[in-house]
Amino acid sequence: MLKIAHISDLHFSKISYNPLQFFSKRCVGNFNLLFFRKRFYNEKQLYSLIDHFKSLQIDYVIATGDFTSTSSKEEFAMAKQFFDLLDKNNIKFILVPGNHDNYTKKAYKNSSFFKCFSMVPKKINSFALNDNWWFVGLDTTLPTHWLSSAGLFSKTIEDELSKSLEKIPKDKFILMANHFPLFPNDSRRKILKRSEDLLKLIQKHNNIKLYLHGHTHRRSIADLQGSSLPIVIDSGCTAHTEFGFWSFIELDSALKITSYKHTQNVWNKDRESCFSFLNSKKL
Predict the structure, then answer these.
(1) Most distant pair of Cα atoms in the chain: their distance
(2) Is residue 281 in a domain?
(3) What is the pTM of this model?
């Protein structure tokens, strides 16, 4: 059995008072932190996950982006400290960046996320998780204007992803991870552009069984197998003080998802869901 912890939108944050920020998008992010968002995130509850992961004997932690709030050096250092601690506790982790990790044009140009987490390949990350499952991670982030948090499934990424998927044996299951959801259920300034092209590509590969994402801050599970699409899981915002969630995913001959919610300073089971994989070989 493969045991996975799906976390997302950690939003480590450090308010900056540097006047140079007024020449970049960071001034918008710091304004939001100072007057709104900072009180909604609690980094301490993230550190309390480590013992939890160890007790559950997690094989992989998959984190689907937004490790920072404004992609500053200080925030990346805070995020790296957390994942370094996972590493010291022998907990394997897999990362895909979110829009807040390429929040400014300078951070994108300097590849700040990839310099901080040098083990993460750019654009496409593909490898075997075990004898039956493969992981495919996407980087669909890009620097956007001051009021946008959109992503882009570019033609270049589409071509690279198509080549990567063709190399994976057809009798293996695929878990795909991306920061952005497949469907535009928010305003257009938050969507994944060309998501319809990603959907078409996924439908061509019926061994893609799971799609993990974040971005919306809303926990959700959707079984879309009837539409030749995978089971889609949004872990929710793991760092949120009031609505902090993460998903415990158990993969065997079927799928079991246990959602955990942070209440009264403790991570408690919130709900369980079980699914079978349609038109699939027996594991």
Answers:
(1) 59
(2) no
(3) 0.93
Asked if the structure places residue 282 within a domain, the reply is: no
| CATH code of the domain in which 233 resides | 3.60.21.10
CA–CA distance, 8 with 96 (Å, rounded to integer): 10
pLDDT in tens, 107-148: 899 999 999 999 898 899 999 999 999 999 999 999 877 567
Does the residue 54 lie in any domain?
yes
Taking the C-alpha atoms of residue 238 and residue 240, their distance in angstroms, rounded to an integer, is 6
Q: How many domains does the chain have?
A: 1
pLDDT, tens digit (0-9, with 9 covering 90-100), for 38-55: 667 888 899 999 999 999
Residue 260 lies in a domain: yes
Which structural domain, as residue segments, surrounds residue 124?
2-275
